[in-house]
């Protein structure tokens, strides 16, 4: 199919209409992007928080990664899984899911392909190659939606089809194989991870969102996307977007350094990002990817060209550092981070505060404790590992077993407050606007304030956090996380109350 702006625009608009997601006076259009290929652009100025579009997955299915827990192919529940009674080899959780229209169709296709029944141990593999199978069941209109998306040509795509033919011995027809390989490649470059279900019965699946796929990536995006309880993707402006600007979202982790993000994007999405943030060796003055100079001990070492990273230099004394040395340090820091379990809180804090007995640390010197050796590494305040450690601790303190709100010491509670504030300041430095992480951190900060207030009320002390300040923190968190199915229950209650008020 010829990929041109008119056909793509028409196909996408019709698709959204079929899914009842068309917005009147939608503020976007599809145009040629300077990045190559197509992109989504603002047809008028868009205010912070404004809805830009909603999208629905044309294909939704289990993820192929072996680390993902299995779930029912119909409702994605992870409980009471059993093989489908018709012996297709897929897993369902109930009679209702087995009889669902969606499953009946795919059940029939798989059984037609089988020369022998699929044994229980092979069923795992069949579940993981289900998305391309589902693409064959799409109607012609939906197939043409998939066809107007971009596929990357690469050998590693379509291993799902190899699994079907080799491991599962399915008799796939030639034209079916061709289309499925194309779909695999489209999904590899464009699918989003979506969480389905609630609390301890959540499954992570992947969805192909047509309009979401057409928006390009930036490590400094101007939108934030969340998924609601019906797997809709809800895309809103995280910053003010001037008329005519390209609309970007991020496929990568926002608190990773440029080399980590670019490597990850290249490996998973097959492109090298050249956005404004990637091009700035200081990453907007955050120095998230840099280390401190071992010669002058105060200067920050940054790449002389952030898109090449083969030469690193101290900003103060000009000393050159070999890229291997930087890579080594980054590796050591990364492995230290990964070596911590959730109950290693004391060790993580010691690392952050450089408080090892009998050693007087120099400026921002961090001790990395690997199992048997201690390594001194000089890092700036916002170094990626420091940031990730703080983020990890935020989700342990107040959440994990042994660190529930009631059990936290006053010291741990105020540390958590500081970490939240540090990361919120970093997100601002990185120009990330009203991004989802900001919403999550604000809610954690609000919860800390709440706990501090409760304690002060009990002890009769008066220095309480101002009620209005708390309210505004909570309100901002709720505004950012609106529609997000994974938002905290308290925030979900706030929206439903808002909706009730509007109805009256
Ligand atoms: Zn089910
Ligand atoms: Zn079946
Ligand atoms: Zn970038
Ligand atoms: Zn130096």
Automatic annotation (TrEMBL):
MF-aspect GO terms: N-methyltransferase activity; protein methyltransferase activity; S-adenosylmethionine-dependent methyltransferase activity
Pfam families, per database record: SET (PF00856)
CDD domains: SET_SMYD
Start and end residues of each SET domain: 26-252
InterPro entries: SET_dom, SET_dom_sf, SET_SmydA-8
SUPFAM superfamilies (UniProt xref): SET domain
GO CC term, one of those recorded: nucleus
PANTHER family assigned: SET AND MYND DOMAIN CONTAINING, ARTHROPOD-SPECIFIC, MEMBER 4, ISOFORM A, SET AND MYND DOMAIN CONTAINING, ARTHROPOD-SPECIFIC, MEMBER 9, ISOFORM A-RELATED
This protein's name: Protein msta, isoform B-like Protein
Organism: Tribolium castaneum (Red flour beetle)
Gene: AUGUSTUS-3.0.2_14347
């Amino acid at each position: 199919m010829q990929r041109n702006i008119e056909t793509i625009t028409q196909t996408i608009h019709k698709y959204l209409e079929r899914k009842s997601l068309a917005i009147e006076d939608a503020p976007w259009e599809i145009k040629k992007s300077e990045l190559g290929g197509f992109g989504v652009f603002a047809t008028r100025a868009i205010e912070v928080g404004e809805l830009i579009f909603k999208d629905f997955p044309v294909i939704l299915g289990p993820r192929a990664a072996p680390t993902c827990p299995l779930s029912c192919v119909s409702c994605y529940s992870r409980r009471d899984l059993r093989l489908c009674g018709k012996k297709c080899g897929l897993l369902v959780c109930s009679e209702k899911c087995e009889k669902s229209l969606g499953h009946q169709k795919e059940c029939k296709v798989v059984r037609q392909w089988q020369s022998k029944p699929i044994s229980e141990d092979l069923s795992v593999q069949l579940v993981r190659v289900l998305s391309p199978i589902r693409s064959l069941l799409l109607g012609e209109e939906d197939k043409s939606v998939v066809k107007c998306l971009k596929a990357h040509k690469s050998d590693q795509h379509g291993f799902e089809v190899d699994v079907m033919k080799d491991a599962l011995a399915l008799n796939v027809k030639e034209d079916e194989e061709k289309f499925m390989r194309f779909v695999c490649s489209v999904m590899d470059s464009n699918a989003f991870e979506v969480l389905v279900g609630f609390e301890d019965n959540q499954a992570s699946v992947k969805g192909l969102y047509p309009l979401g796929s057409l928006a390009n990536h930036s490590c400094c995006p101007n939108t934030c996307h969340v998924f609601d309880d019906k797997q809709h993707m809800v895309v809103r402006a995280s910053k003010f977007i001037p008329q005519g600007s390209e609309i970007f979202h991020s496929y990568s982790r926002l608190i990773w350094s440029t080399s980590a993000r670019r490597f990850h994007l290249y490996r998973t999405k097959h492109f090298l990002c050249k956005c404004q943030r990637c091009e700035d060796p200081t990453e907007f003055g955050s120095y998230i990817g840099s280390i401190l100079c071992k010669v002058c001990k105060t200067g920050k070492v940054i790449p002389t060209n952030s898109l090449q990273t083969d030469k690193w230099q101290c900003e103060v004394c000009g000393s050159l550092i070999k890229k291997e040395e930087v890579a080594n340090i980054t590796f050591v820091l990364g492995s230290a981070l990964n070596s911590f379990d959730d109950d290693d809180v004391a060790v993580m804090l010691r690392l952050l505060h450089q408080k090892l007995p009998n050693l007087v640390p120099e400026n921002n010197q961090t001790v990395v404790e690997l199992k048997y050796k201690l390594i001194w590494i000089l890092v700036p305040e916002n170094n990626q590992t420091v940031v990730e450690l703080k983020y990890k601790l935020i989700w342990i303190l107040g959440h994990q077993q042994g660190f529930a709100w009631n059990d936290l010491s006053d010291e741990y509670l105020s540390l958590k407050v500081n970490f939240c504030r540090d990361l919120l300041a970093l997100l601002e430095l990185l120009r990330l606007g009203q991004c989802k992480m900001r919403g999550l951190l604000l809610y954690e900060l609000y919860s800390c304030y709440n706990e501090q207030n409760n304690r002060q009320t009990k002890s009769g002390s008066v220095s309480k956090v101002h009620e209005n300040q708390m309210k505004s923190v909570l309100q901002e968190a709720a505004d950012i996380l609106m529609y997000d199915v994974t938002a905290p229950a308290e925030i979900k209650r706030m929206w439903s109350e808002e909706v009730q008020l509007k109805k009256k």
